[in-house]
Structures are given as structure tokens and as C-alpha cells.
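Holo prediction — magnesium ion.
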Amino acid sequence: MRVALCGNPNVGKTTLFNQLTGLRQRVANFPGVTVERKAGTLAGAPHVEVVDLPGTYSLTPRSIDERIAYEVLVGRLEKEPDVVVCVLDAGNLERNLYVVTQVIDLGLPVIVALNMMDVAEENGLAVDASALENDLGVPVVPITASRGEGIDELKKCILNPPEPAQVYRWQLMDAVDAKIPALIKRLAEEAPHVKPMHLRMEVLRALAEEEALDAWRLGAPEFVNRIEALQEEFAKRGIAWRHAEVSGRYAWIGPIAQRASRRVSGPATLSDRIDAVFTHRVAGPLCFLLILVCVFEAVFSWAIPAMDLIEAGVAALAGIVHSVLPAGWVTDLLTDGIVIGVGNVVVFLPQILLLFFFLGIMEDSGYMARSAFIMDRLMKRVGLSGGSVLPLLSSYACAIPGIMAARTLDSERDRLITIMVAPLMSCSARLPVYTLFIAAFLPTGKLLGVFGYQGLAMFSMYMMGTIMAFVAAAILKRLVFKGPASYFVMELPPYRRPRLRQLFWRMYQRSKVFAVRAGKIILGCSIALWFLASFPRTEISPEATQIEELAIQERNREYAAAQALAPGRDLTVATDSLLLVDSTLANALDLTARADAKYTAALDSANIIRQSTQIRESAIGHLGRILEPVMQPLGFDWKISAGLVSAFAAREVIVSTLGIIYSVGDAEGGVALRDALKADKYPDGRPVFTPLVAMSLLVFFVFALQCMSTLAIARRETNTWRWPMVMWLYMTVLAYLASLLVYQGGLLLGFS
Amino acid sequence: MIPAPLTAFCDGCPLKICSVHGCAEERLRDLGLREGAQVEVIQNSDKLIVRLAGCRIGLRRDVAADIFATPLEL
Ligand SMILES: Nc1nc2c(ncn2[C@@H]2O[C@H](COP(=O)(O)OP(=O)(O)O)[C@@H](O)[C@H]2O)c(=O)[nH]1
Ligand SMILES: [Mg+2]
């Protein structure tokens, strides 16, 4: 048996779902779309499956969520539910009942769960469940989902489901109603697979909604013709056919809602008083800014210890694998490819978790809706609406949660545009790259004695990305995603205290989706990149071998010298008491110790040279050299090009790749790499890195999409490779052109 | 009295909606802002907030300008 929970957004469906199922639940996607499908079994009745449907104001769908709800209810996505529990906000009966009448008309057994009874009471509203039950003709159970009140009664009712209603209780306006039977007959002939129960609903939808009508164009062309003819006829006769269903249903609901709820006292307006500040035209944006600064500060600083811990853990794990398994390329693949590659992703989890935590608080408390509302005026300028604000801001931390947050957007078009421009916001992975090059090549002085040049440069990187995101959004809106201007209407739910349990639960689930799905793709790409950097194998590096041989000779010579100092003594063992009395022995031991240290250092540098030869001769090295002619106009040599290729996996990888190419061991933004970069010269003596080249590279990083995780998540959220590919292309072209402009323009202006 | 757009009413004004137009029309009706509904403007600044049967709805100014209403006779 399957039970579906259905109702308006924010009425407590998910809360009720959690109450009904306890923790026995699974999250997946509905087949073919990215809408979450939450399912679980009823506590105490494992044969009953409960499904939490996306929130919907009506079954005439206008967003992807609403379409899914409809398709599940009519059994198009999966077998239709046996019982539908319609969850209502008791404080807002009239609007909530609309979708109930639609579900009843589908011929499904309906139970009404009258939720938020506590809020209604607080607001001085008396809701009469039995009056509602009489008028609607379906069972009505009053509950308070957040406190678990009424859940048992509801369960009993679910296990003894009512019969579906057989009659339509509301009146369509006569002129329209007269035409319906003929259309139903026509549709039944052309589309015999539609269940008789659903025919009337399908006809009404096709009449009212362009999209629903289009869906029949192939399957039932004659039906579509008739509808269009009818629409014309109605238009001529001045009949408001488009609203026929809406007004018909509301005419029935209105009096029912009025009878069932009675205002006992004046409305409590705590939310209104809070709103007076939070949505004030001056104070509102200020509060928003303040909250944001705090959230980002927290996301950045709180995550650092955990990220350090993960990095250390990953390195330790790689070390353990290295020491346990025999040396060889399989072990290298396991450690350098898989462990480190996956570690590169996992390391973002703390930031993502924190961001989801704060976003969750904002969502549950009701502030999210306000923030969208406040920023709407600004976003309208670029053709977006307030809903895009949070996804875009989240992308400063990481584009992945940003792209995922775009789900809350009402309009599919706005959601796509937001996803497409989110990676232009400078994320935290660009930070190591910015830091390395700005510290190496920009002067440390101050502009007007106040703003440091380096800080200004960092700030302008962020500004450049942000401004470009808005420009790109405006262009996409005009050229690619054409259509009517987006509008902004949004329910502002009352402020509520977030429930921690629910908050953590959702945090956990969202992060799991990120880690598992994106992780799979990352794993594949990391392995591929490792192969590219490690093959073809170059085992021989004459330079390294020579260093090793010299080191061995040197060590032997110094050992001999030490032995000469203390003839006949065993220099491999020494006791402290002996050292005190015998200074020559101490000197000799000191000599051997120093010889050992030198020897190890020499071996290390030989190793690094080997790695760098490996990279130069590997597929990536070759690719870098193939790319060199293309990248030369931007001022990049093959080493930078190879770094850029490796940075396709994740931006910060370029730092360690350059470290390996330049043979400086401990690379992560260290001083050694900085100096090596500055010292590097072309064969003709020109320096490879000049401040201008560094600027050009920085600009490239601002705009280029070098992040597999972003592509993977964009693929997941749009369900096609088309948009991620377009995203990657336009950003790469943008990055190339911008770098070209900077470098060539700089040369023309006489910079070097 | 002749209907006027929502944007023309001041804070705290109880109103009855006469007609709804514009591109957000359908969404507005879904949300319950339809002919005959009783609403109250609770904020009218660079954007509008209206109260409708116990819930608050935020509107962009140009959307609100497409909703026509008359003051409710008390
Ligand atoms: N006071 C009160 N709050 C509730 C009740 N049911 C749900 N909530 C809160 O309403 C908010 C929205 O609930 P949610 O389950 O996410 O709604 P959904 O969008 O329908 O899934 C959450 O913050 C819940 O904690 C209730 O009966 N009383
Ligand atoms: Mg929900």
C-alpha cells in the first residue's frame, strides 16, 4: 500500500512525513527529473509506503515540482498512490483547500490532515474539523505535526482508508461545462491509455494551461484542434474560460472555509513586527548584509580546522597505503590518484555542511523568503529575481552548494540561468591560486597609503567574477533563455523557530547526495588525470641517477673521513657516556650524521627531478607542449599550460602541479615555489613569469571553469550534459579572451 | 468607487480585489489573490506585502500594479 503526502509548500508535509516514518526513509530522485523523492515506511506498519510529494499550490502545474506532484498522483511516474493525505495549514484554509478539491476529483481516496493547529490557535483562529469533514465529505484529522499531536489518529485513518468520492461537488460555469463531455469523449478515443477517472481533469488542464495542451499535440491532434477552436469561440463570446476551473472551485471552497474557521480574537502579529525591520527598505538590506557577512565569516573560519584535519588524514591514509602495499604503479594509482583525488573533494565537505546548516536555518526560520524579497529589486536589473540571491552568494564558498540551492527557484528558466552563472562567483578553491600569484608578483606597497596593492588585487578578482556573473545572466536572459520577464510573487511564511533535528537531518542528506553522486564522477576523472600525468612511464632520468650516484660517493667519502678521525671505533653505535669523555669520537659521529642528512636531501631532490621529468614526458606534459602555441598569446609557456590542463580537475591542483614541474618539494604556496617561478627563464633569457603574465593567469582563473565537481553537479541538477558543456565552453572562451586582452593590452601599453 | 492598483493604497488598508492581470496572473490566483478576495496592504514601499487570510504575500511593485482593488466598506 502506498500513501502520498500532498499539499501547499511549507504546510508541514516533510515534518509530518518524518513523524509518520520515523527514520525509516530513503531519498532518491523521481525518475528522469531532479526532484527529490522521499519515501519511507509507516512506523509500525512496514507494508505501508509513505511518499512525500513536492509542495504544490494546484495541480495545474507551473513549476517542475508541481508537475511531478501531478504525475505521481495520476500514476504516470510510478504506480498511483492508494491513499492521498492532503496536508493543510489550518490558518489558511481557503487557499489550501484548492488542491484538495483537485485531488478528490482524480478519484483518489483522500484524507485531510489539518496541520498547524497550534499556530492557528495562537493566532486566535478556531478551526472546526468536523464541520470541514461534513462539507468536504472526506475524513479530516486535526494535527500539530511539529509536536507529534494527532499522528496516531491519522495513522489509524490511513490504515482504514475511505472510499474515493464519486461525484464532482463544484460547478463549472455553464457555458464551459456544456462543452466538457464532448471533449472528454474525444480525448478518450484518441488517448485510450488515460484512465476514465482522469479524463475530466486532463481536459480542464489542457483548456487552461498552454503547456498541458502542447503535451497532447502529438498523441491527440484532433483533441488539440477542438480545444483551440473552443478557446477561440469562448474568446469571441467573452467567456473567461481560462479561469473557469479556478472560479468554479473557489466558489465551492469559499463558503466551506468560512464555515469551518472563525476568528476568535485579533491576529497576533509578531511576524509583522519582525518584518517591519527585516523588509524595511533601508534596514532590510543592511540586516541582510550583516547576516551574510557573519555566515560567510563562519563558513570560512569554522571550516578550516576540519579541512586541515581531513587533509592530514588523507595524506596519512595515502602514506599508510604506500607503506603497506608493494611499490609500483598500482600503489601509486591508489594513493596519488584515488585517495588524494577523492580527498580533494571530501575536503570541501566541512564548508558545504556549514553552508547548508546556515541556509537551513534561514530556510526554516522563514528568513530565506525575506532575503529573496529584499534583493529582488536589485536582481530585476539583470533579469533575474530575488530567488537567485542566495544560490549566487553561496557560490562564493563553493559553486556546488550554490548550484544545488538554485532548486528553490520558482521559474525553471531562472534556475538554469542561475546555475549557468554561479561558477563565475570566485569560490574558495581559487583562493590558493590567487594567493600564490598575487604574493609572488604584485608589489607590497599601498595605494594612497591606505589600501595594500595585494589586498586590492584580491578584491578586484572577486569583483571581476561577480560583475561578469551579472553580465552573463543578462546576456543569457536576452539571447538564450528568451521569454516573458520574470515576475516575483512569493508567500512570506510566518517566522518560526528552526527544529535542530530536522535541520541536521537535511544537512546530512544533502551532503550525502553531494558526496556520493559527485564523488563517483570525481573518482573517475581523478584516475584519468593520474594516468595522464603518469604515463607514458619514464623510468630513466640521467640527471637524477647522476645525483644519486654522486650522493653515494660523497657519503662514502665522508664516512671514511669520520672513520679516520676515530680509528677502530664502531661509528654505528654510540653511547652518551662515551661521548662525554671522548671528544674525537663525538666529532666523528657528528660527521657521519651530517653525511647522512646530506645524503637523504640529495635523494629527495633526485626524486623530485624524477617526478618532474615524468611530468614533462607524460601525456599531460605533451598536452602542455601541444597547447603552448595556443596559450602563447596569453603569455603562458608549456609548464603553465600543463598546469592548466591538470587544473581541469580542480583549480588548486595547479599549485601542486607547478610545484612538481619546478622541482620544489613542499609546494603548497610555499616560498620555494614563489622563488622558482620568479627565477624561471626562456632559453633566450626572458623571464617566463612577469607581473603581466601573472595578471593574465589570474584573470584566466577568475573566469575559467576548472572544476569537475561543478560540471558533475550541474549535470545532475539539469539532467543533461548540454548545459554543463555550454557552461564550460562559454567560460573557457571568456577566460581566454579576457587573458588575451590583459596580456596583449598590457604589452601594447608597455608593461612587461 | 473605481478600482485602483494595489500600489495606490496605503499601509493597513483593508481591500477587496476586483481584477487581476499581467504575466503573474495565474500564480497570483494560485496563491489566493483573486477576484473577491479580501486583503490588507501591510507594507507599501519599494515592494508590497499584503495579508490574505492569515498569510503574507510579498509582491514586486510591477506585479502589484496589475492587481486592482477597492477599499472594503466596513
Ligand atoms: N508550529 C508548527 N510548526 C510546524 C508544524 N508543522 C510543521 N511546522 C514547521 O513548518 C515549517 C515547514 O515545514 P515542512 O515540513 O518543511 O513543510 P513542507 O514544505 O510542507 O514540507 C518547518 O519549520 C516546521 O518545523 C506545526 O504543526 N506547528
Ligand atoms: Mg518539504
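READOUT: Chain B has one domain: 4-71.
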